[in-house]
Amino acid sequence: MAAVDTTVTRDTRARFPITEVRWSTVVAPLVLGALFLLSWELVVDRAEIEPFILPAPSAIWEQVTANTGNIVDGATVTGRNALIGMLAGAVLGVVGAAVAGSFRFVDQMAAPVVAALAVIPIVALAPVLYSMFGAAVNTGRIIVAGVSVAVPVYLNTLRGIRQVKAVHRELMTAYAAGPLQRIRSVTLPTATPYVFTGLRVASSLAVIAALIAEYFGGPIGGLGKSITSSAASSNYPLAWAYVFGSIVLGLLFYVVTLLVELWFSRHHQPA
Amino acid sequence: MTEPAISVTGVDRVFGKGRKQVVALTDVDLTVADGEFVALIGPSGCGKSTLLRLVADLDTATSGEIKVFGKGARQARLDQDYGIAFQQAGLLPWRTVAGNIELPLKIHGAAPALRKARVAELLELVGLTDFAKNHPDQLSGGMQQRVAIARALAESPRLLLMDEPFGALDEITRERMQNELVRICAETGAAVLFVTHSIPEAVFLSDRVVVMSPRPGRITGIVDVRADGLADHHDRTERARDQEGFFRAVAEVRALLHGGASTSSAGVEPAGVGVEER
Ligand SMILES: Nc1ncnc2c1ncn2[C@@H]1O[C@H](COP(=O)(O)OP(=O)(O)OP(=O)(O)O)[C@@H](O)[C@H]1O
Ligand SMILES: [Mg+2]
């Protein structure tokens, strides 16, 4: 038989897109960040700004190193709520979108509800949820995080489901595939990159929601509670140290989701 | 006597209603015998894809009858009597080459061991064994198209429906693919309905070339390539491209495309002649 194209010399292995990031894209923001911290330090020092208004980065860092254990514990509590909420919300969003994508009337019924949920700040529900589930458990916080995540995941997944190509749809018809096979073989894989875009947006929301929900009550131990109690006892550098912990936690969620997204989307460039 | 692979009788397809009505096909009669290779050729918009899609039951005729192996088109689709390849390869980018070829088998619940063996066979057939684990975005257009053809062949259908599968390929790859398709057809003995825009491609591949014309879409004539002295399609070799009969058939198809049977010279069958019945 005709041996065609078997002598392709170019490297055809899949590439993880992160490996193609140039150094300048990493270095530039780092330089900017360093400059920012430096001028912050200088301004606080020269203008003799009181710590309760704005502590210097060095003072905050002192507190961070002195309280690393507490900050990590707080991040674990808040992170756990955010993670459980995020996973539950993601499942809810994806399944909901799959159903709405398959049945037009579900989509039409759900659209106004989702639009409403998208504009309500979900954390506002926290006090209500605390009285519903009791203030001693984390359930209310998890629900707040979950709903915050479910909305963007649902909207993005639904958009992804609508991207199914006509060829793929017709292929499934030609194979006489059932509705579940369609969803499994074509619809969900097509939507996957969109699901992850939704998740990336949602990852920061999950942390923010879980954190802010702590401001409204519930058990102590999380970063949010620690921020409010340190501020209440006028220990502003410590409050800022916990804020620093929250930033790291939010970034961690974002970066992990981003890496997972890049991994899952590595073959989604149009062939 | 075996049933014909495709039998289309008095088929019309009208899109839209009222003013904006488009008559895509009118009064189309066509029979493709079991194991026969028939090409559909005609200017853009003459209804070639529409006809193919009707046979595949991806669309429904406004009137007329379509039978595939003696069954209704819908039943034939449900029974998986045909394999199909589109102009775009239409591979699933998140699946490997092997995973794409395996797809129809998987959907129809074939056992994993059987699937694996069949995929290996098909990869060999289209010469892509070394690329089994690659993803479509790592293949050239021609290679993707071969994967699509392997996928269409996965369940050894007795009928292949192909809509301009080589349309996007360069001339060299295209001729290579044509040679491979001839070889594959000889190995599988499947009947083929093949849509194309290329006259030489139609003549080289087929037993008969069906010429269509637009507004409204209809069959204007059929050229029996074998009558011009070319071998049966699965006995054809690359040499056929240089044979005298090849050029004669090309000229006949061209004559039919430009101005229809009335102005054509000797050797061209007007519509109806060479078709089984009217
Ligand atoms: N879904 C549709 N709705 C309305 N009109 C359609 C539809 N599909 C096809 N048509 C019309 O039917 C006619 C035939 O279309 P078809 O796609 O079959 O042409 P074709 O011969 O395959 O053309 P090409 O060679 O460009 O692929 C065209 O005029 C087209 O506008
Ligand atoms: Mg077409």
Automatic annotation (TrEMBL), chain A:
GO terms for biological process: transmembrane transport. Residues 71-260 form the ABC transmembrane type-1 domain. It is found in: Cell membrane. Belongs to the binding-protein-dependent transport system permease family. It is a multi-pass membrane protein. PROSITE patterns: ABC_TM1. Coiled coil: none annotated. Keywords: Cell membrane, Membrane, Transmembrane, Transmembrane helix, Transport. The chain crosses the membrane at residues 21-40, 82-103, 110-130, 136-155, 194-218, 238-264. GO terms for cellular component: plasma membrane. InterPro entries: MetI-like, MetI-like_sf. This is ABC transporter permease subunit.
From TrEMBL, chain B:
It comes from the Bacteria. Residues 6-239 form the ABC transporter domain. Keywords: ATP-binding, Nucleotide-binding, Transport. PROSITE patterns: ABC_TRANSPORTER_1, ABC_TRANSPORTER_2. SMART domains: AAA (SM00382). The keyword Transport applies. The keyword Transport applies. Signal peptide: none annotated. Pfam families: ABC_tran. GO terms for molecular function: ATP binding; ATP hydrolysis activity. PANTHER family: ABC TRANSPORTER ATP-BINDING PROTEIN, TAURINE IMPORT ATP-BINDING PROTEIN-RELATED. This is ABC transporter ATP-binding protein. The lineage of its organism: Bacteria, Bacillati, Actinomycetota, Actinomycetes, Propionibacteriales.
